[in-house]
Amino acid sequence: MSSNTVQSSGSAVPAAPPVRSSGLTWWKALATGAVGAVVVNLIVLAAAKLAGASLLVVDGGEEHPIGVGGVIGASVVPLVIGTGAALLLALWKPVFLRIGQYVGGGLALLSVAGPLSSDSDGGTVAALSLMHITLGVAVVLTLQLSRRRH
Fold first, then answer.
1. Which residues contact 74 (CB under 8 A, 6 or more apart)?
2. Fewest Cβ atoms nearer than 10 Å: which of 23, 27, 30, 142?
């Protein structure tokens, strides 16, 4: 009899495989999500530049250029704060991972109203809107990577 079977009333029954979690640890999920959001948003920025978007946002009569540093900061900071809070709360109650997915994804989608209401050219509005949507998807996927562990 092999070590993978259990003797039960005279017949061999295969033993259950060991339980293994397939999700990432909280810090690996957070780092993966942040890096993924930055990479995708930088690709969107590059595509917008190649397409001829001005990448200028007018706020209060002042023009604010959208650059690489701003895209990285706007991709990492909200994701790390929001998903980090959900991941910490999930250590107490795992349901906060699902709640964080709904809240984080929803807030990112609602934030698309900012670019849509800005006084910018169509290419800039489209690029910024896509970056906001990308952040929402990154939040949901980051928390999903961790949910598999719980």
1. 41, 131, 135
2. 27
